[in-house]
Specification:
Number of helices: 8
Order of helices and strands: HHHHHHHH
CATH topology of one domain: Four Helix Bundle (Hemerythrin (Met), subunit A)
CATH architecture of one domain: Up-down Bundle
Distance between the termini: 43 Å
Radius of gyration: 18 Å
Helix content: over 70%
Strand content: under 5%
Length: 229
């Protein structure tokens, strides 16, 4: 369905907030792996669980785009979408392939604590593909979404992610995104949620991420994106 003239259009700031969280966590991950003492299976288990978590969040995020965003752009955006959507799909495939290789190595490292350098390099390959994808998406896709996707349709992406995320992971997922998020964007994301959710999610999410970060990064306030190379 084509948007009507008076419908509010997508507010894509939440996508940029999610991307910032992915950039931070995937940039920090290779060094977390390298810093683990070879053979320390307890530490490997902590870092591996974190790696699996952020990869699950990323996979759900991309699944929502594949199902809900690309088809709308192809129907509504003509040559612009015909150019960029195939690139987005190819980049998703490249990320999936890099993720599959990293996952293959991750299981062995988690079990033995050995092979960390090879695993770190595999996640660097994934990081490179992801950074290229997000930069291209922000440059070409988000401006199209602002013009051709309604606010209600855009919220379907978040609803898809929420439905696909295990309930235990929901506060941590929000907390990870909110860590460097603009308060105005956070408020906008939660604007259509019931009042208890609007009140509790920011508090619980931040606490869950702080506890998670202490376990994984050794601090409740890991390096922010602006300080990372």
């Amino acid at each position: 369905m084509t948007p009507t003239v008076n419908e509010p259009m997508a507010d894509v700031r939440d996508m940029r907030m999610a991307h910032a969280a992915f950039r931070r966590e995937f940039r920090l991950l290779p060094q977390l792996i390298r810093d683990a003492v070879p053979g320390d299976v307890q530490r490997a288990a902590v870092v591996a669980a974190h790696a699996e978590f952020i990869c699950r969040v990323l996979e759900t995020h991309h699944e929502g785009e594949d199902l809900l965003l690309w088809p709308k752009l192809l129907r509504r955006c003509g040559e612009d979408a015909a150019f960029i959507v195939p690139i987005m799909e190819e980049q998703h495939q490249a990320i999936d392939q890099a993720h599959a290789e990293a996952s293959r190595l991750l299981s062995g490292w988690r079990r033995t604590g050995r092979g960390g350098e090879e695993l770190a390099r595999a996640f660097e390959v994934l990081l490179s593909a992801l950074l290229e994808h997000m930069a291209t998406e922000e440059k070409h896709v988000l401006p199209l979404a602002e013009k051709h996707v309604t606010a209600a349709e855009w919220r379907e992406l978040g609803e898809h992610g929420l439905a696909k995320t295990p309930k235990w992971d929901v506060p941590l997922t929000f907390g990870m995104a909110m860590y460097e998020g603009d308060p105005a964007v956070i408020k906008a994301v939660l604007a259509h949620a019931p009042l208890p959710v609007r009140l509790l999610v920011p508090v619980i999410g931040r606490r869950r991420y702080a506890a998670h970060a202490r376990q994984v990064h050794g601090t409740s306030r890991p390096a922010r994106l602006g300080t990372l190379g």
